[in-house]
Amino acid sequence: MPGAGIRQHAGARLRRSALYSATALFCAVLAVPAQAQEATAAEEEVAQLDQIIVTGTRVRGRVPTESISPIDVFYPTTLERQSSPEFTDQLANIAPSFNTQRFPIADGTAFIRPASLRNLPPDQTLVLINGKRRHRSALVNLQVEPFGTVNQGAQAVDFGLIPAAAIQRVEVLRDGSSAQYGSDAIAGVINIILNDYSSGLKIDGQYGSTYEGDGDKYRASLSWGTPLTSDGFFNLTAEYFNNDFTSRGHPRADAAVVGNIVGRDRVPFNGLGQRWGDPNAEGIRLFFNSEIGVSDSVRAYAFGSYADQDFDSSFFYRTPVGVPGIRPRGTLMVDSDGDGQPDPVDQALVNAIIARGLNPADYLTPSATSPSGWVALNPIHTRFPGGYTPTFGAEIEDFETVLGIRGESAGGLRWDLSGRLGENRVAYLLRDSINPSLGRLSPTEFRPGTLTQRERGVNLDFAYALENSVFAAPLNIAFGAEWRSETYIIGQGDPASYESGPTALLFGVGSDGFQGDGPESAGRFSQNSWATYLDLETDPTDRLTVGLAGRVEESAAFDTHFDWKVSARFQASETFALRGTVNTGFRAPTPGQANTLDVTTTADASGTLVPLGTFPVSHPASVALGSRPLEVEESFAYSAGIVYAPSRDFTVTLDYYNIDVDDRIALASFNIEPGSPEQQRLIDAGVPGAELLGFVSFFTNAFDTTVEGVDLVANYRADFGEYGWAIFDARHSYNKQKVRRFDPGTIDEERVFDLENQLPRNRSVLTFDYRSPWNVDLLVRANRYSGWQDFTFGERASFGSKWLFDLAATWHIRDRFHLTVGGQNIFDTYPDRETNGVLNFLGLSYPLSSPFGFNGGEWYVRLSVDVW
């Protein structure tokens, strides 16, 4: 099976990591006694409307309905009652303003899935853990059409590293907040609050699969809390998961022909050629959260995480030599005139091979009809009678540690000093591929390189409630400073993955599918920034709340930036309030975006596989095609909304928002035709391998957009007396994006069309969560996605709206055992069929742009045990 070698190697490493983690955890559990958990998850959800929030305000005691900005609160019982073990999917399934897609055959994007808030790029949403900035993934999304539009070029946080079992609640601030939190908070802020209970041990196990019988998912987690002295806690969550692949494509047209002639068993993936579906995945995730009292007014805290995950997926199919009617992959044979015969090789190339002390028979095939005696037929082709499909994999290691101390002076001044260190490392693997320039001497397994994102930060925050006789409430004054450092490291791949052999100009260079990073690509790139802020909030009258925030941020790579935010909320009556905000925001380009150098493979408009080179903006290839230094993205946004809360059990909020973003960063992509002016410019600039490149990309500030929309949230808790109680939750998001300006020389009409149409404009989530007095709970959820369109390879396609339904029943057995049987997309709904001719030829049955994927229905069984 393709990828087996990757899985075996990764599995051994994961088993060692899991063993070490489990041993340490078991010893800790034995060493410290614990008591029953203090509150059940159900009680937490009952109290949702009264939950004190900590995001978007630095005033103590605010609840969601009192917030100046719109904010959602989600709990783990809602996240965990789903078939997916990924937090990315879990949140997207319940928050209509949060979207994610699945992109197979998309390099690292197939594993590290980007997610967007309010139809803006993933890195325009700031992610916090316990109120502290979370580090980014090392992945920079480099895929061009059709493998991502909203996410293209983004470098964001990997939500897939966060287990739901470690979460106490999630606060989603749907409002720009750069003035309060700094870079990236253009679309909003997602703050993940970790478990803080000081006693209890809970064990979860879950298994599920798709209706098609593939995509088996295993997940097991353990959450444990224990006191630290008499005034503190330590909480640890450990999770293991193992997901099998899914496949929803059909045989490629060329793979089907090859299979009929040489046998399906000789064609990768049993005749499909390539696989469209979820990757294999296995990993462990650990999170801890702790706090202890140092004195009556000072507390020390620490939290952090570690993850070790492995993935592998399929690339595009490469056709073999010798099958009538099928043109072989150019890495195996060069047939420039299309006569079905390999081209003769120039004698100069043969002489050059011999001059290097090499044997031409290792790189070429002898022929009596060629004047040189050799033809452009790679002798390694005999090892792939049915063609080959590279298996692409990644080993992802991630850790973060945050240490801090906070307290309050006798005069009421609150302070918080913290430092953080986080790192994300992605090591790529490639199997079942070749370096065609090495001929029969090429290995078939490669390590193309390693990407590392390392971040450090120090924060010092103060808050003081100034009593006064002018306002109806104290003036809350918050101020502070922050230092941040980002370092992006490109690690060199193994030599065979980037080596240019003697036949590079004939067959190509480097590991086919994903070329390794050579010495010219490797490097370390850093960027530091400093910031100060002031945040004021008070109630001038009993009915009016106002807020004002300003932040100055200076970077070593970019100019000093100032952002501001003005907010207000007016309580018109006991049940009705108005609220609104106006703010500016920004996002600084990352070192990864400015310095990435990558060569991979993509398909052109005819379905032919061609090399795609992505270069730093300062690289000669980029400069030759008109690159300019990157600038920060800037935003101006405003929102206005109403809050209706006639009782503690019923609330309705409706908010309109409008976000202008200027100088958005995108990948400019140029088609490099043989003999074109673009190719000649690359050759004149001395770009190595310019003759082989099919596309060239680099980052640039390419366009301006406006996103506007409406979010509706209604929540009602119904008490049925002796028949239990239920929560009715209705959420709707309308979102429309408009490209106001773009540079036709950098992005094309297809990209503009997709930005405006690829995500559904309307999305609704309706949830009925019933808790009965008979120890049986029932959850019913409906997700509606309106229709959407995409523009790929010159063809526009429209896809209709869909309803998806989820169902879960939970039995509580003796208050300790909780058995859940559930289904997601229980009516097995798929998106409309893909109609694009090129994508159909490549075996794709359903659109990559589908906002809910194309796996169909899934079922799962989950058992949770409260040990003590």
Automatic annotation (TrEMBL):
<feature type="signal peptide">
    <location>
        <begin position="1"/>
        <end position="36"/>
    </location>
</feature>
<comment type="similarity">
    <text>Belongs to the TonB-dependent receptor family.</text>
</comment>
<keyword id="KW-0472">Membrane</keyword>
<dbReference type="InterPro" id="IPR037066">
    <property type="entry name" value="Plug_dom_sf"/>
</dbReference>
<dbReference type="Pfam" id="PF07715">
    <property type="entry name" value="Plug"/>
</dbReference>
<keyword id="KW-0998">Cell outer membrane</keyword>
<dbReference type="Pfam" id="PF00593">
    <property type="entry name" value="TonB_dep_Rec_b-barrel"/>
</dbReference>
<protein>
    <submittedName>
        <fullName>Iron complex outermembrane receptor protein</fullName>
    </submittedName>
</protein>
<feature type="domain" description="TonB-dependent receptor-like beta-barrel">
    <location>
        <begin position="361"/>
        <end position="826"/>
    </location>
</feature>
<keyword id="KW-0675">Receptor</keyword>
<dbReference type="GO" id="GO:0009279">
    <property type="term" value="C:cell outer membrane"/>
</dbReference>
<keyword id="KW-0732">Signal</keyword>
<dbReference type="InterPro" id="IPR000531">
    <property type="entry name" value="Beta-barrel_TonB"/>
</dbReference>
<keyword id="KW-0798">TonB box</keyword>
<dbReference type="InterPro" id="IPR012910">
    <property type="entry name" value="Plug_dom"/>
</dbReference>
<feature type="domain" description="TonB-dependent receptor plug">
    <location>
        <begin position="67"/>
        <end position="189"/>
    </location>
</feature>
<dbReference type="InterPro" id="IPR036942">
    <property type="entry name" value="Beta-barrel_TonB_sf"/>
</dbReference>
